[in-house]
Protein 1
Amino acid sequence: MDGNGRWAKRRHMPRVAGHRAGVAAVRSTVETAARIHIPALTLYAFSEENWKKRPKSEVGFLMGLLSRYLKAEVPTLNENNIRLEYIGRQQELPDDVQERMAWAREATARNSGMVLTLALNYSARSELVDAFRSMVNAAAQNGGIEHLHIDEDMVGRHLYTRNLPDPDLVVRTSGEMRLSNFLLWQLAYAEIWVTPTLWPDFRGLHLLEGIAEFQKRERRYGGLNHHESNHYESNGDGRALAHTPEASDAKS
Ligand code: FPP
């Protein structure tokens, strides 16, 4: 959700005006995603770095905005059958915000549609650190560290996102080309779509545009594309391999 500050600056308004305007973008995006039956939408609302490096007044404003959003939006989330979740070090957020978050989660817990996850005080590196700690603790309580067998599934089970699918698509607003410490493990095979639109101007229609772009992509997960693998199968002797960049690399 990048570009709030720039949106405000262009209008000679304080940064917080951009954050306030960003709430309309949240509403529109969430509602559109739920209506087209996206199973899971995660919004990177507030990074650990934002929390540490922004002025206290801005952080306080964002906390208030989040609290008010949660209070106001629970009825709409329920109407749209949306279940609310969070990722990030929630325990470091102000107590009253944590209480409001817990209340909103509980109030939507019985919904069976889209899972809306808000990343709040989130850092992917901290998530990995927490996962490693959690794996070691679990092993210590289950016969000791020598029984620790780590594989990818196990790491996944100790991440904050253990109940979520890996994202298929990352939408980055305001033209930013970075991952900015967001879901580094989970985005291994995600498609990235970058739009110049600033977050406060972003709407459900932009999300649909991103999804349309995503549908044109061919996902190979390190394998061959559809045409190449068919050709390989039909030749049966591996001749088609010479046509793929991987094969050329392997030969050289
Ligand atoms: C990034 O823009 C945005 C944020 C740090 C905060 C986003 C929060 C909201 C839109 C509102 C509260 C959240 C919810 C879920 C209701 P930036 O300030 O880095 O702007 P810039 O990229 O132009 O500098």
Note: The longest helix spans residues 56-79.
Protein 2
Amino acid sequence: HMPLFQLAREVMERIEAYGGEAYIVGGCVRDLILQHEVGDIDIATSLVPEEVMEVFDKVIPVGVEHGTVIVRHRSHSFEVTTYRIEEDYRNYRHPERVYFVSSIEKDLSRRDFTMNAIAMSGSGDIIDPFNGREAIREKRITTVGKAEDRFEEDPLRMMRALRFSAQLNFSIDEEVYSVINEKKGLLEHLSVERIAEEFIKLMTSYSYLEGWRNLKLTGVYHYFPIFRNRPFLIDARPATRLTDWGELISFYHLQARDTDVKEWITSWKLSNRIRKKAEKLIEAFHLFEENETINYAMYQLGEDYLHSFRNLTSSLGIDLSFDPRDTYDNLPVHARNDLALKTSELMDVFPERKKGKWIGEYLHAMEESVVQGTCRNQKHELIEWVKEWDQQNRN
Ligand code: ATP
Ligand code: MG
């Protein structure tokens, strides 16, 4: 990731040449110190958005009123934000106002945890007024300032503490932890989307078990949709790491069969894409449970979800006796279109019948039979098979 930092340095140099200050800040500095892979690079600057827009040709004004613009530099994006503090958190949601401030130290003081409140200049100078580096070295999560105040300002920080602890395998300072215990009721005020974002990050972390344990011990999960009504759900602990919402919903549905997918989607405000995935995984799991239909289960599941099916079953503690990918690859057909008997040819087999919904049913029966190996995917065999099937079905 050296090149990315080199590009960020070029951005910072341009700002400095204009007379401004610039530092990389937040998660990327933390990850750099940890020698983790760095995703995005955020830059803090003394310049106001209007000035940043003058410095660079390609700028996307994503949140000018909050001081943020995206600078495009050699096909990379950098979030450049004016030094600011946030005040007047009303209803525990978004700050009523942000104020631009003149020093990086002030900007760092509004940040959530000391490990996230470190700045680094283009030449490598570090500004670390809250001893974030020491916290990182000791793998500790602690707030900038009093936990009580900072969590009252923005209760999401409690969720972030739990999430970071799972992601980084850091421990939360005892006093911060006890404030979470005390103040968790404030999570009531947050939008479900913000909680959802942290919850899924926590559950898909490598140290998700640590995260899960903390959700349980603090009782924070009482403020989550679904879990609120079914607190026993938290006892369902994935045996291996899940990697997305689709897998997570399927896991809980199969572990404790009284949660349905639609309820997850509505109450956590998730997308239709996630709903579709969870439904596919659950359907495939039921077919798999019926044992003799493993081929058909993989066929129905489709190529995109094979890997998730493996993740799901291992989270349920099941050792598969087959490889989903191999099984899928060895299927005689992968879609209805691959059948050797086409729709028009099927109609020729039953010339007395009009077009209708029987066609879909017959194609479906042929698919299942070919996939399960009771009929080969050859035209004349399919014709014989479908005639016989028709006889049996009419009686
Ligand atoms: P990651 O991107 O890996 O989730 P991150 O630390 O970059 O971790 P972001 O949500 O991208 O987290 O936020 C960037 C920085 O902004 C944080 O490092 C922190 O300094 C600050 N920050 C983000 N959310 C909050 C918050 N709710 N309260 C205070 N500071 C915050
Ligand atoms: Mg980030």
Note: The longest strand covers residues 76-82.
